[in-house]
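To close the chapter, one final illustration. This time we ask the reader to focus less on the individual chains and more on the assembly as a whole: which components sit near each other, and how the overall shape emerges from the parts.
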Amino acid sequence: MVEPATASQAAAPAMPKLKDELDIVIPTIRNLDFLEMWRPFLQPYHLIIVQDGDPSKTIKVPPGFDYELYNRNDINKILGPKASCISFKDSACRCFGYMVSKKKYIFTIDDDCFVAKDPSGKAVNALEQHIKNILSPSTPFFFNTLYDPFREGADFVRGYPFSLREGVPTAVSHGLWLNIPDYDAPTQLVKPLERNTRFVDAVLTIPKGTLFPMCGMNLAFDRDLIGPAMYFGLMGDGQPIGRYDDMWAGWCIKVICDHLGLGVKTGLPYIYHSKASNPFVNLRKEYKGIFWQEEIIPFFQQVVLPKDCTTVQKCYIELAKQVKEKLSKVDPYFDKLADAMVTWIKAWDELNPPAGGSSAPNGKAA
Amino acid sequence: MRTSPSLLSLTIDSAVLNLSNIADLSSLPDHIVVDLFLRTLRAGKLNERVLKLFIATGKDEVFSLIRALNIRATVIPVLPTTIKDDEIDIVIGAVRSDLTSFMNEWRPMFSRFHLIIVKDPDLKEELKIPEGFNLDVYEKPHMDQVVGSSTSVFFSGYACRYFGYLVSRKKYIISVDDDCLPARDPKGFVVDAVAHHITNLTTPATPFFFNTLYDPFAEGSDFVRGYPFSLRTGVKCALSCGLWLNLADHDAPTQALKAKQRNSRYVDAVMTVPAGSLVPISGINIAFDREVVGPALVPALKLAGEGKFRWETMEDIWSGLCVKVVCDHLGLGVKTGLPYVWRTDRGDPIASLKKEWEGVKLMEEVVPFFQSVRLPREATTVEDCVVEVANAAKERLGLTDPVFARAAKAMLDWVNLWKSVAYISSSSPAV
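The assembled structure is written out below.
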């Protein structure tokens, strides 16, 4: 039986790293009680709360946290007509938090995620591990069989060329979950009692050219390196699909990271996922996605970004163009989505004007 | 007139016949329980459940009978029912002569299977192998007989195991270095590397999309949300690469720099190496489907300073890159991760580094070469693929260093050897 750590088990680190360079983005529609569990690890950091649903409801933030909170009214006020690209009644709205942040790094977590315990019983400081992942290089060009060579106690294996051992900057750190696994609705319906109890003590770089299903429950990224590509799409109210927000972002960022020579890591840290959402509700939200992903995946696998796309924004606009060209025939939704992707970039650039007026390329084209 | 059996006797006989319906024996008087136990034994109806039933009565006489008769519940490892023991060969390349402790440590895992032990032709001493195994031993004279003395140069040092791959008649091959012992998992249980490799080879691989929960076919795991359904059947797994605790497979410079570093991290995962992604496959602990991919494991890259420590070789790395390229082309899978073996401390990395540095340098050419190889659509068999890779190696690397030209030729010779030796019908006896 896997159990979460209690609040008293979590021990605050002596020196919280990146305290002034990292924002924690939390979407919520209920409450933020879960933060009590995380207090020792997260209290030093600034929170950006994105309140979904009814803006007239008051979301109480536990005392002692430094935060800014945005509800739907705030989003509409700040973005004006561009607010149409931010989803309503879906946790996809969290990407608004990425946009308004002024920090270099983002850690995002769901409000039903608690602190996990490692096999020795020690509470896992997920943020600390994400920071370790992000501040050490990735190795996407050749697979290391001992996983992350930059972890303590590990290294490159025999046969790994020395010229590839410097690695590339890590743009994304994708964490995992114990207890309720992130299954799709059909799998949930078939295996309602399955719990993830396997603690896999590894971090690894997802190789270049390989796509993966990115889960937004426990995620960190470098906003400067990849932020504009972290758009979580059009989901929820008025949209034909839900629970594909993080998937969509994951496919986009992976293609762009591969193009710009950036790395994506997956594995540790684990969080304890406590709440299983209703599989019937999930099925209704997902079912179109289950069919559409059969077309979407080949699309992303075959995307080629031109060499002159040297910034994330340029890559993303190009991607939006290709989505409109090639996926609209799957469903008119993709036409809307492509437009929303462009709106998102416009909004991002407005809220994040480049310093000094000239936009410097933030990555090398592959 | 025969005395008719007593009512008690008939009752006990009836109880023996109906043991499957009995859930509790503790209310019975001692002497009846003992009688029932003895008659159960005589009828051959003692199984694990029934034994537990008798033990649960707590009767001393039952316990003393159990002890006296040495009755024990045996734990039988559960292998997938589709694999028969006679489909597996365990191939050991003997680079050292005394295999006694190695074989004895692996006995619980190896004893069910047929073993092929191949002696390094350069080894002068007699092999020391303990009794009690079903095995065939091959030495230089066998190699000369089967492949002719001019080509036996393939099989020196660690590459001697490839001779075993060649002459095996089985479907699955499992191969570990002779300085590796069974490992223990974090709970203290001994890892059955053989069983685990077989599980890896007999469950599908998923190279076209990365599953963030790693092997979806492992117990307690599955495909995650967002994994396309059409890709969930997976492909056949052709190669299973295991890992090593204690002395990990680092190259000499790395191990020399971190002299005290030992691998103590047990990563409880198996995963498929994605298609298009190359990987340095260590030969220390591998298993493969010989029928599907046999010819692609090539004893080709022999370093000028090659020696008898893994730090002094790169043959397995070249071979593994070839296998991965072929598997990617043919839509086969390669898995990495569990099982672990325990690799004993042996040798001195600094001494190896002084002797052999070339191998590390050569990787700078080798990896980009394999990354750039494109196999034509017409190459539909493993042999054709290996020939294509060999020709590309000769063309693109042949002039860089003579070791590559030799490797390319060795690959072509290997394919021919495989065709003439390995495809003898299974009815003819092994050499």
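The mean pLDDT of chain A is 93. The CA atoms of residues 43 and 208 of chain A lie 36 Å apart. With these observations in hand, you are ready for the problems at the end of the chapter.
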